[in-house]
Amino acid sequence: MAGRPSRRDVYDRLDEAVVDLRERLGGLPAAAEADDIWTAIWHQEAHHSTAIEGNTLVLAQVEQLLEAGIAVGNRELREYLEVRGYADAAKWVYSQARNVDSWSGGGLVTLTEVRNVHEVALGASWNVAPHPNATDRELPGTFREHDIRAFPGGMAPPPWPDVTSQMRSWINRLNAQPGDAHPVEHVARAHADFEQIHPFLDGNGRAGRLLLNLALVRMGYAPAIIFQRDRDRYLRALSRADAGDAGPLGELVARAVLDNLYRFVLPAVAGPRRLVPLVALATKALSEGALRVAANRGRLRAQKGDDGHWRSTKSWVDDYAATRHQRKP
Fold first, then answer.
1. Which one is predicted more confidently, 202 or 29?
2. Is position 60 within any domain?
3. pLDDT tier at 102 (50, 70, 90 boundaries)?
4. What is the rounded distance in angstroms from the CA atom of residue 245 to the CA atom of residue 250?
5. pLDDT band at 329 (very low <50, low <70, confident <90, very high)
6. Is the pLDDT of residue 274 over 80?
7. Is 302 left (phi over 0), alpha (psi -120 to 50) or beta?
8. pLDDT in tens, 172-183
9. Is 185 inside any structural domain?
10. What single string gives the DSSP state of each residue in 97-165?
11. Sign of the CA dihedral running 10, 13, 17, 18
């Protein structure tokens, strides 16, 4: 049985998927071109990113809130507003896919955008449940004027007078060339650095994940969803990055991006007759492995590329699914 792909394998598969997306399908769809794709990711991210921070709404409640504006259940108003604010900020982030004209100075992220993302994400919930220690100047979108105690494990954010200068340096590092690191590992390293600085009094985790996705979509990748079930692994990867090893965090983010490309983006933008990797066509009934076996046996119509990977189409997979239990004459 094949083992879990290595970090290098994950990066290679991600690069291949992005090449497929760019060369065969024209890159990430703009938000207005594929609202259904972004909506599916939008619901998942708004739920899981807020759940990591303790929000108790389940996915069905999040979907009702975002699609119909209905607050289902008996939760505190703050929790509904947390999800609504995060979702509004995420929707703006997704609108930046392929929207190169909106970039300021050609960089991935600006300091103004950092402040704006935080303000949109936290503004509504802050109005009903502000941070108890906040001064009148520490509103959503403004940097903290409090020192923050060291976190478990020893990581201590910088003193508050240093935050503005450290955030300017952070912007410069994020917008610099990644050097020898994979681009996704580069932005993952920046995500960990943002959490180390902890520039806001509250909401740094949510703002940090939104900014991570802003950088990713502007680079042509799908956004990453850190699932609630992966919270502990995510926090451990952040701790490793704090200690100087961003590899585990980069791999976690790359796997999340690849998952979204295969689950949501590639199948939707390809159409029923466009060739895509088998993993993008897999279902609960037909796993990637089962499709690969069928392709190798000639049961599934597919093409093997120069990279050694099989590609097929939704139409061909549907034909195979309809006839796979029939006996050959």
1. 202
2. yes
3. very low
4. 10
5. low
6. no
7. beta
8. 999 998 888 999
9. yes
10. TT-GGG-STT-S--HHHHHHHHHHHHHHHHHHS--TT--TT--TTS---S--PPPTTS--PPPGGGHHH
11. positive
- Please report where in the chains the tokens 């093409």 appear, as a residue: 303
Number of Cβ within a 10 Å radius of residue 104: 10
**Structure tokens that stand for 255 in this block:** 């796997």
CA 242-248-254 angle, 5° bins: 120
Mean pLDDT of 113-130: 96
Structural domain ending residue among the three candidates 229, 248, 270: 270
Residues with Cβ within 8 Å of residue 19, at least 6 apart in sequence = none
Rg (CA), the chain: 21
Q: What is the pLDDT of residues 126-170, one digit of tens each?
A: 999 999 999 999 999 999 999 999 888 778 999 999 999 999 999
Ramachandran assignment for 308, one of left (phi > 0), alpha (psi -120 to 50 degrees), beta (any other): left
Same structural domain, 306 and 259: no
Sheet holding 303-304, edge to edge: 276-277, 310-312, 303-304
Which among 258, 269, 314 is positioned nearest to 27, based on CA atoms? Answer: 269
Residues in Cβ contact with 307 at an 8 Å cutoff, skipping those fewer than 6 apart: 16
Q: CA-CA-CA-CA torsion for 261, 238, 105, 201, nearest 10 degrees? A: 120
User: What pLDDT does 153 receive?
Assistant: 74
pTM: 0.84
Is residue 102 domain-shared with residue 160, that is, in the same domain?
yes
The overall average pLDDT reported for the chain is 88
The DSSP code sequence of 246-305 is -HHHHHHHHHHHHHHIIIIIHHHHH-TTS-EEGGGT--SSS-HHHHHHHHHTTSS--EE-
Q: Where in the sequence is the domain holding 25, given as residue range(s)?
A: 7-270
Q: Which residues are catalytic?
A: 198
